[in-house]
Each structure stands twice: as C-alpha cells, then as structure tokens.
Amino acid sequence: MDASLKVSGLAYAYPDGTQALFGVDVTIGRGERVALLGPNGAGKTTFVLHLNGILHGGAGTVRVGGMEVDPRDKKALREIRRRVGLVFQDPDDQLFMPTVREDVAFGPANLGVRGAELERRVAAALERVGMAHVADRAPQHLSFGQRRRVAVATVLAMEPEILVLDEPSSNLDPASRRELAEILSSLDVTVLMVTHDLPYAAQLCPRSLVLSGGVVVADGPTHELLADERLMAEHRLELPYGFVVPQRS
User: What is the Cα–Cα distance from 194 to 192, expressed in whole angstroms?
Assistant: First the structure.
C-alpha cells in the first residue's frame, strides 16, 4: 500500500524530562481517513507536531509521501510543510487576511505560486468546501462553521499529501457539523482527524488509532474499537449517552 504517512519508532521527551511518546509506529495509506483518538495527555498533539517538523529531536523517523521529515534540511522541510496540511481547532488562528480569497491564496503564494495557477488553486479550494460565494468577504464576517470551512480551503490550496484536522467538529451547530462531514467525506486526500468526538470518528473514519500514555494501544476498524467496552474504559473514552455503535458487515 502506498503510504501517505509512515512513522517508525517515534519517541519524544520534552525539555523538562516528560516523556510524551514511547516508540510509536503508524502507517497510513494514500486516501485513507483515520481518526486519532485518546484521552487528554495521551500524546496526540505531540505526535501531530512531529508530522511537519515543529517538534523534533527525539528518536525514530517520520516520512510523508516517502520524504523524511528532517529539520536540518530547510528546503525539504518547506516541502514537508506543504504536504502536511494542519487545520487548527480554532479557525481564527488560521485566518488573518482582509478577504477569504487572500487567506486561501496566502499559502501557495508564499511558495511562489503566481498568476493563473494561483487563481485556479484558490477557486478550486473554495469550491471544494462550498465557500466560493464568499471569496471577497472578510473572514470575520462569516459564521464559525463557515470560517472552519475556509480554514480547510487554505490548506487544500497547498495541495497537501495529508490533511490533519484538530477537533474539526468542536463548537459547530448540528447543520454545520453535517455540512463539514459531507465535505470531508468528499475530499480525495488522506485525512488524519484528531478528535474526542467519537460519533464523528465513526461517521467519517473507517479506521481509528487509540493513543494512550504515549503509545498506540489499538489500531483497527473504528466501529470495532468503539464497541470494545474494556478498551474504551481503560483509556477514558466515552460515547455519548444513547449512541449506538454502527455495525458493519
């Protein structure tokens, strides 16, 4: 299977001595949609920040689309950060230009994309998230759900290898939650979704990883992991009251 992401033996300790990751091994194939689940303090953020070299210096290797993340190689790191599209939990951390169009254009323009190609990328990214009609509006005048979709577009315009979403369903009303799910399901990129929203993981991601205590304790079909009561209890994962785990044939 062609891998978008291959992590081997990843271990990391913070400067104060706190060991956050203990030899994590993960492979995600091109086009997969995978949820990263786990309790607070499990190491999920530490793991994600290694994918584009924001954190480094521990043991192990990370490869994105076959290219190793090496912070010493500035040219390669620039390409890695194009390939790994991070969508933050708060879209206001990602949107800062006067108009939506300028926000979506910022990333590729910073990489030297100009003219018709830049216009094509911006138009295509906004179309994919259903936000083409707000291209000339100020981001701060949009609803929270609309801003999150624009934040996704800013990353899609970079034509990433893998889209990494941090709690994409948080603070969304039910309609916005559904609309975003439809968009994410339609994308033809690899998706890694970090979430505490277990029903959203079940809806969008056929496969899930459970990270707990700095190690991957489970990796398999999402519906099977969510139906494992012992696994869920041991790692402080809880389904909403009344939610029934969908059964797959």
Answer: 7
* CB neighbour list of residue 144: distance below 8 Å, 6 or more residues apart: 91, 171, 172, 176
Strands 215-221 and 162-166: unpaired
The pLDDT tens digits along the chain (249 residues) read 579 999 999 999 999 999 999 999 999 999 999 999 999 989 999 999 999 989 988 899 999 999 999 888 888 888 999 999 999 999 999 999 999 999 999 999 998 999 999 999 999 999 999 999 999 999 999 999 999 999 999 999 999 999 999 999 999 999 999 999 999 999 999 999 999 999 999 999 999 999 999 999 999 999 999 999 999 999 999 998 778 887 765
- Integer Cα distance of 177 and 153 in angstroms: 16
Judge whether 101 and 122 are in contact, CB under 8 Å: yes
List the Cα angle 241/244/249 in 5-degree steps.
Answer: 165
Provide DSSP, 40-70.
TTSSHHHHHHHTTTSS--SEEEEEETTEE--
Nearest to 62 by CA among 133, 11, 134: 11
